[in-house]
Specification:
Blueprint: H1 2-6, H2 14-42, H3 45-63, H4 92-100
Length: about 100
């Protein structure tokens, strides 16, 4: 049962995050303008709230799941550098700090 959940992708690349944010903000802005104008015309503030909430729900459905359109530009990570066992496990930054303080 848990293997089904592990097969679902849960990541988004950086360009996908930017696209999702732009879509989210655009839908919220458009629904707010439409809701405000419609509520002003019929003089019912409740309809303004309903339209903005509907826009929020639509934008959540479109942007929260990691749809394939948000995973088109995966990062290519640099290969890990193997650590040699003969050298001490001191980081290069630490050795530079020690040399500067002498």
């Amino acid at each position: 049962m848990l293997s089904i959940f592990k097969s679902i992708p849960t990541h988004m690349d950086y360009k996908g995050q930017k696209l999702a944010e732009q879509i989210f903000q655009g839908i919220i802005l458009i629904s707010a303008v439409i809701g405000f104008v419609y509520g002003l015309i019929i003089e019912q503030f409740g309809w303004t709230v309903y339209i903005v909430l509907a826009g929020f729900a639509i934008s959540c459905v479109l942007t929260l799941p990691p749809w394939p359109m948000y995973r088109k530009n995966p990062l290519s990570w640099q290969a890990a550098i193997p650590e040699s066992s003969a050298e001490p496990s001191q980081k290069p930054q630490e050795s530079l700090k020690k040399k500067k303080h002498k």
